[in-house]
Amino acid sequence: MSTASIDRQTIEAMVRNALRQSASPAPRTRSGNPPGWVNGKPNLRVSISARHVHLTDEHVEILFGPGAKLEPEKDLYQDGFYAAKQTVMVVGPRRRMLPSVRVLGPTRPASQVELAFTDSISLGIDAPVRHSGKIDGTPGCVLVGPVGSVQLHQGVIRAARHVHLNDADAEFYGVQNGDMMQLKIVSHECTTIFDDVLVRQDSAAKLEVHIDTDEGNACHLDAASEVQLLKISSGCACKH
């Protein structure tokens, strides 16, 4: 397989695996727990990932002016990631638009727009369900900032559900990077089980499932009484 045919996410996974095999144990907090653990156990968080945009350094300067950098406004749960002060307008076919879509940082090698299904309908874009970074063959859009605009020829996706976890979390659940899990949301008369939750393992990650706004509304996440992350094994989901 040539290097050109390997996508960015696969390369990152290979690098992480090589680093894990070369030595270091999972990082620990001052309490002695792995990142995100409470009282010696993983602390599961389920977050709704609202529509947002990832930008390259080049596109930041085109949209916000020469020398512009993303300005952090709010830290996200995963260390090192943040919601920026900057927003952009996302314009679809026939001039349908979302007027103020938050940019997330840090910058990336390729710009990407992540929407929920209802967002894509509103824009008139047939956005496919993809995991982050897998944008080949996806539709594009126009991004408009206060200084300039960018025509994306690809990069608009409906982000597939996934779970971030560290090495200790992965050992606890008996999974590894690239596996699929189930997420069970228990809420009054609205209990829902989501399949196809991709495991994205990183030694510095904190246990967090990302679903989009449509999925969060469908399971009434705000009123959930319990959330369970389930390993899929021989047709049986277990451990939570």
From TrEMBL:
Family per record: Belongs to the PduL family.
Keyword Kinase set for record: no
Lineage of origin: Bacteria, Pseudomonadati, Planctomycetota, Planctomycetia, Pirellulales
Pathway field: Polyol metabolism; 1,2-propanediol degradation
PANTHER family reported in the protein's UniProt record: PHOSPHATE PROPANOYLTRANSFERASE (PTHR39453)
EC code(s) of this entry: 2.3.1.222
UniProt GO MF annotations: acyltransferase activity, transferring groups other than amino-acyl groups; metal ion binding
Biological process (GO), any one: 1,2-propanediol catabolic process
Organism in which the protein naturally occurs: Stieleria varia
Enzyme class: transferase
One Pfam family recorded for the sequence: PTAC
CC cofactor: Zn(2+)
Gene Ontology CC annotations of this record: bacterial microcompartment
Segments of this protein annotated with the region Disordered: 18-41
Keyword annotations: Acyltransferase, Bacterial microcompartment, Metal-binding, Transferase, Zinc
Biological role stated in the UniProt entry: Involved in 1,2-propanediol (1,2-PD) degradation by catalyzing the conversion of propanoyl-CoA to propanoyl-phosphate.
InterPro entries, per the entry: PTAC
Record field: catalytic activity: propanoyl-CoA + phosphate = propanoyl phosphate + CoA
Protein name: Phosphate propanoyltransferase
Primary localisation category: other
Localization per record: Bacterial microcompartment
